[in-house]
Amino acid sequence: MSGAAKVDRLERRVSSPQLQLSEPSSAVASASSSETARKLLIRVDAVDKEYATRSGDGVTALKGISLEIRENEFVTLVGPSGCGKSTVLKIIGGIIKATRGLVEFDGRPLEKPSREIGMVFQRPILLPWRSVLDNVLFPFEMMGRNVREHVDEARRLLDMVGLSGFENALPRELSGGMQQRVSICRALVYDPKLLLMDEPFGALDAMTREELGIELLRIWTERRKTVVFVTHSITEAVFLADRVIVMTPRPGKVVLDLRIDLPRPRTIDVEFTPEFKAYADAVRDAIYTGKRI
Questions:
Q1: Residue 228 pLDDT more than 50?
Q2: Among 159-173, 178-192, 193-207, 269-283, whose mean pLDDT is lowest?
Q3: Quick check: 225 and 192 in contact, CB under 8 A?
Q4: How far apart, in Å, do the first and last CA atoms of the chain sit?
Q5: Count H helices, E strands: the chain?
Q6: Among candidate residues 156, 160, 130, the one with its CA nearest the CA of residue 142
Q7: Which of 60, 126, 151, 209 has its CB surrounded by the most CB atoms within 10 Å?
Q8: What SS3 class is residue 147?
């Protein structure tokens, strides 16, 4: 039996702009009821994205993307390279505009970047001449706010990610994992409603990546943000998420919206359970089915 069959009663396959949930178990039905009660934070409706090449030809990056993400959800986007995951993230963040379709954030059309949205990129992008603490506080300078009022919060965040004592260090004095922790603190320090993460652990070694995944879940549990997280890793996508969104190769479409009904808090041990394997198999099946569409 395929992984998709094993979790058939938990998954939502996309056959139209509306997601269909077939025969949920009572536990999942209860969870769905709870999710419905949460405030809708992001709505993406029938979004297309097209680019013009230098030769003048058009390239369709996204086609008919529709998503709804509720407050405090942790959602992962996974799919093959070039499927448009990062493009979806940038559209949700107001960094680029959709060619067609509607994007709403907190009930309003999203037309430009918002201070309520934080972003973490694949690389930390720290200012090399600034200390760790000053890098974390940098958003307040950009916003024209009093930096000194937020020093204590910045120190609390650095302590939370294990960087207490490194406040005065320069980025070059930190490992890659430590630099990414600083980047996460910088995105969280001004308390955004939404955190967008574009393969933030992709450039790290496997052990550091695993460690930061656990740390991110701990921070999310304590701070309860809505998180949209892009990854190429199926294991990472399932381990972190409340829902995994699977996309097809270009033009990117949503082929699977899978709710992950695994208990929290999660530890690495969950990856060795039959339930985890079934979810991972379902995601893998959807990716390879999508490649044949």
A1: yes
A2: 193-207
A3: yes
A4: 22
A5: 9, 12
A6: 130
A7: 126
A8: helix
